Amino acid sequence: MESQTPLQALNPFMPGAGLQPPALVGRTGELELMDRMAARTKLRLLNRGIMLYGLRGIGKTVLLLRMRSIAEQRHMATIKIEASADAGKTYDALFREIPMSIARIGKPDLREKVGGVFSHVESISFDFMGVKAGADFKGKESFRTESYRLQLLIEGICRELRKADSGLYLFVDELQEMNDGPLGDLITIQHEMGQQNLPFYIIGAGLPDLPGVLAKSRSYAERLFEYREIDKLDDISTRKGFQEPARNSGRPFSDDSLSQLVDLSQGYPYFIQAYGAATWNASDSNPIGEDAVAKGKSEALRMLDHGLYMSRWQKATEAGRMYLRIMADLSDGPVRTADVARRFRSRGSAASARASLIADGLIYSAGYGQVAFSVPRMAEFVRRVMPEVEQPYDGRR
Fold first, then answer.
1. Tens digit of pLDDT for each residue in 63-79?
2. CA atoms within 13 A on the CB side of 376
3. Is the residue at 185 inside a domain?
């Protein structure tokens, strides 16, 4: 007698960082924008880059990966990196990923021509004020060398790609964290490639302060990119995000349970996956009813705590946790830094804690004199769970 597959093994929902959801809903505009951009590149028409910004857990990484897939289907050469505050790591990632993008080019003759550009640039040595800057030289001159190499490499590659009606697309996640050296270089390179009608474009994703970070690096950045705020989904898209995967897996949600799930998730994609997974596992009926929503709620909260909140809480210092507690007491949304400082043990330590939290990506600058949580409903977590401040940071993001 054949054993049946357990219902939980058929669960279509899976919360996780950057995991492709069973139904990518509510992002049609951004996907169409990417498709038009690639189509224009094939026609040798200029584009702007694209910048996606929003809170964590909102689906920016998933969207970035899907957009990269569209570009590759249109035969664009693509690079994907995650930004780093360490300039050296960013340059290393770029020079590691660029040859990999060349290797993925489907046409052998084009791949050979583009590969020749890489070999040529690698053979060039640079000399600054009598100091030869090679691969083993560490310091300011080394970063200048990397900057020149990067520009020459991108320019040469794009010249060959343009002849083949293709382009070079750089996808960067967590862009707000990038060191200003390589960040400024990349913005400048896209600007200069555009002036030469060469197809190099940056498609980035980051926190809500990303537009300000880019403008601070290069004042003309606001004109180089199409900015798209990635917000929570509307109710119609949220219902689709729950119901389409469930129905396709043979166990749809009842109307009443679906309405409850829409209310609980508040349109946040990560919450859809957590509540969908927990409710599916809690049900043995078809359709899945309201009782499963109630049974699965505690498990959904556990998934959210450990998937979105706990590691970030552990990442904060004791002073940082105190700062987060005060923020949560004041508001679920943006708070005035002056209000937090007044309740902190000292204004100086408040400023230091705030800087550390921003650097770690737990909060962001929401405007002049204001900060906000970078993760949806983080304030609820702080008020609800209040983990021990002695709990050590375990190294996860």
1. 999 999 999 999 999 99
2. 21
3. yes
Q: Rounded CA gap, 139 and 367, in Å? A: 35
In a shared domain, residues 191 and 132: yes
Task: List, in sequence order, the alpha helices (H) in the chain.
Answer: 28-42, 60-73, 87-103, 108-122, 140-163, 180-195, 210-217, 221-224, 235-248, 255-265, 269-282, 290-304, 310-315, 318-330, 337-343, 347-359, 378-384
Residue 379 sits in which domain range?
317-384
At 275 the three-state DSSP class reads: helix
State how far the Cα of 310 lies from the Cα of 381, in Å rounded to an integer: 9
In a domain, 261, yes or no: yes
Query: Does 350 share its domain with 202?
Result: no
Q: For residue 275, give the CATH number of its domain.
A: 1.10.8
SS3 286: coil
pTM assigned to the model: 0.88
Q: For residue range 360-377, what is the model confidence (pLDDT) as tens digits?
A: 899 999 989 999 999 999
